Every structure is written in structure tokens, then in C-alpha cells.
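Incident log, support desk, overnight shift.

02:14 A customer reports that sequence design results differ from what the structure should imply. Their input is reproduced verbatim below. On-call engineer (initials T.W.) acknowledged and began investigating.
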């Protein structure tokens, strides 16, 4: 079991789903967590239930000025994060011929540009303080394979996988590890509607070699591993957390 005592983790998208599960898991293992979300009420409600003086701060990851302000506030308050989990994300389902330009821009700007903006500011702080740290990006099986009617999402998540490798290369010498997880379908607010329909549930269960889609906690365990000292020699990888979905085609 990892021990995160003495660590401070920033978690974007920390109010819900995979971000919330990851925050709960590592807080339970000793970390102080700061939940960053545009949904400040959700973030505050979760932070209030977590140990080690968990905090919630409102942040839209697409707002670069707000990200700069956030890191200034953290510095002012003497808060020195050494773990960043980029979980804020959105999805758009459209045939590429119908995809509105603003939807393309929105998905890319939250999922890909937002992850980069946070990583850049975080890494600058670590460089300036001479400390190492870890970044875990939440990619997707849509970062490894295409998926019908998800051009913007698939492009953004392939971007996250590439960004993970690139940052690992460039930040490794600073002692900063950068990895990602690639979940398949995870039961969260993003996918809740799938679970209303028994035919969709049966189709999903059949698609996953392990017989079911994931719960957020299944993913959070791997996020925690990658953020932890146990993964100290691991950087630049994207680990599928997909019940075997990308292992091969089922007949
Ligand atoms: P979720 O909707 O439960 O949580 C996403 C969180 O991100 C929400 O709290 C939301 O308020 C926040 N958010 C969205 N845009 C934001 C912004 N601009 N700034 C700050 N916060 C913002 O969804 P989830 O399933 O937990 O998704 C988390 C990540 O996991 C996403 O990157 C998603 O693409 C990825 N993912 C999800 C699944 C799945 O099936 N649920 C599968 C693979 C990957």
C-alpha cells in the first residue's frame, strides 16, 4: 500500500468521477489534496469529507490567467504541491461531418490544452524549488484507439498520450515523472446515461474481457500507483485500465 504522508496533490476535475475517486484514495493514504474544479460546490462537498485539511478551489482549466493566479495563491500560502492529477475532461459525441467548430475547440481546450497548462505551471514550480514530483494524466482508451463519432475526444486523448511521453522526456531530468492511465468506460457522471439502458449495459459487459466496465475506484488505484514512490522508475507510459478492452478484438 502506498503512503502519501507529507505529499500535496492537485487534482483537476476533483469534484467528480475519476478525479474524486483518486483524491479520496490518496487522501485516505495520507496525502493532503486540493480539488480543482469548475464545480466548486461539488469540490467543497468532497473536500469537507476528506482528511488532512483537504481544500477545494474553483478553477476552469481552460483559463490560463486563472491557472497562473492559482499557482501564485499556492505559493503565497506556502502550499508546495508535488503531485498533479489531470482529470478534468469533457466529451462530445458527433459525427465528424456534424461536429461544430466550437465543440472541437472546447474538447481540445479542456482535455489537452488544460492538461498542458496545469503541467507547465506545476513543473515550473518544482523546477524553481529543486524538488521532483509526479504528474498523472487521465487519458482514455480513446487515446489508443478510435471510437465512432468522437473525433474531438479521440484527438484530444491521443494528444494526452503524446503529451505524456513528451513531458516525460523533457521533465525527467528535473525529477518529474509523467504518466497516464487509459480507462475504457468508467461509470461516472460522464457515462451515467449508458447505465439506464439494460441493452447498453449488456453490450458493455460483453465488450470487456473482465465482464464489466470500470468503477472510478478501479482507475484510482492505478492513478495512485503512478503518483507514488512505488512507480519511481516509471515515466512516459500510458497504462490501459480497461478490463482487457484494448488487448485484442473479441469475436
Ligand atoms: P466526470 O464528469 O465525473 O468528472 C469530470 C470533472 O471535470 C467534473 O467534476 C467537471 O466539473 C470537471 N471539469 C470539466 N471541465 C472542466 C474545466 N474546464 N475546468 C475544471 N474542471 C472541469 O467525468 P470522469 O468520467 O470522472 O472524467 C474524468 C476524466 O476521465 C476525463 O478526462 C475523462 O475524459 C476521462 N475518462 C473518462 C472515462 C469514462 O468512461 N467515464 C473513460 C476514459 C477516460
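02:41 Re-run completed on a clean worker. Output:
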Amino acid at each position: 500500500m502506498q503512503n502519501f504522508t507529507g505529499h500535496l496533490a492537485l487534482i483537476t476535475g476533483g469534484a467528480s468521477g475519476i478525479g474524486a475517486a483518486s483524491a479520496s484514495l490518496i487522501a485516505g493514504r495520507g496525502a493532503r489534496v486540493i480539488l480543482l474544479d469548475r464545480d466548486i460546490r461539488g469540490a467543497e462537498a468532497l473536500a469537507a469529507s476528506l482528511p488532512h485539511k483537504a481544500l477545494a478551489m474553483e478553477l476552469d482549466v481552460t483559463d490560463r490567467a486563472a491557472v497562473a493566479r492559482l499557482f501564485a495563491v499556492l505559493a503565497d500560502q506556502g502550499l508546495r504541491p508535488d503531485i498533479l492529477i489531470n482529470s478534468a475532461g469533457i466529451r462530445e459525441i458527433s459525427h465528424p461531418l456534424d461536429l461544430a467548430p466550437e465543440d472541437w475547440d472546447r474538447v481540445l481546450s479542456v482535455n489537452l490544452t488544460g492538461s498542458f497548462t496545469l503541467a507547465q505551471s506545476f513543473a515550473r514550480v518544482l523546477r524553481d524549488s529543486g524538488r521532483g514530483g509526479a504528474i498523472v494524466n487521465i487519458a482514455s482508451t480513446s487515446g489508443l484507439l478510435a471510437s465512432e463519432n468522437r473525433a474531438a475526444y479521440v484527438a484530444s486523448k491521443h494528444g494526452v498520450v503524446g503529451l505524456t511521453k513528451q513531458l516525460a522526456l523533457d521533465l525527467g531530468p528535473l525529477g518529474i515523472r509523467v504518466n497516464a492511465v487509459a480507462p475504457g468506460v468508467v461509470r461516472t457522471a460522464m457515462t451515467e446515461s449508458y447505465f439506464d439502458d439494460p441493452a447498453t449495459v449488456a453490450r458493455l459487459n460483453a465488450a470487456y474481457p473482465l465482464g464489466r466496465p470500470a468503477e472510478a475506484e478501479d482507475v484510482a488505484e492505478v492513478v495512485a500507483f503512478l503518483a507514488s514512490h512505488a512507480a519511481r522508475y516509471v515515466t512516459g507510459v500510458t497504462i490501459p485500465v480497461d478490463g482487457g478492452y484494448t488487448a485484442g478484438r473479441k469475436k
